[in-house]
Write a structure and sequence with these properties.
147 residues, alpha+beta, 2 domains, 5-stranded antiparallel beta sheet, 3 helices, 5 strands, elongated
């Protein structure tokens, strides 16, 4: 196998890792607005907004370069691909271990129709249990603000 084949394989693996990194976005009801009262606020720790970041890419490149040093012929290509996979996994693991964490809140809102809605968002010290609030959006993009 040629060196060109190894480069194509590395690019394909990186593309697959990137495609699998984030779930497909669901934008249903993006402009939805609901009103209610805060029933409960629980502090949480939020991770950075990354799924597959620089750590994975640097790890994959370094692993591919290191793996390319071993074997000969098709064994060299196999070692390169294995190095890319292992390096990408290791880089992502290291990045997640040192990811910036920030304060957040999981807020449970009791809507007027009796339904409870939970939203996790960055901490807002102005929100208190019993506050009348509005929920803008839905899913992971939902945000709560006082009215």
């Amino acid at each position: 196998m040629s060196n060109r084949y190894a480069i194509v394989m590395v690019a394909a693996v990186l593309a697959l890792l990137s495609a699998c990194a984030t779930p497909p976005e669901q934008r249903v009801g993006e402009s939805e607005i609901r009103y209610g009262r805060i029933a409960r606020i629980d502090p949480v720790s939020l991770e950075g907004d990354h799924q597959l970041g620089v750590g994975s890419i640097i790890g994959a490149v370094a692993g591919g370069v290191l793996g390319h040093q071993f074997g000969g012929g098709s064994g060299k290509d196999l070692a390169t691909v294995a190095g890319v996979l292992a390096g990408g996994y290791a880089g992502n693991t290291v990045q997640n271990r040192y990811a910036d964490r920030r304060a957040g809140q999981h807020i449970t809102v009791q809507l007027g129709n009796g339904v409870a809605v939970g939203v996790t968002q960055p901490a807002d010290p102005g929100l208190r249990v019993g506050d009348r609030v509005r929920i803008d959006g839905s899913g992971p993009d939902a945000r709560i603000s006082r009215i």
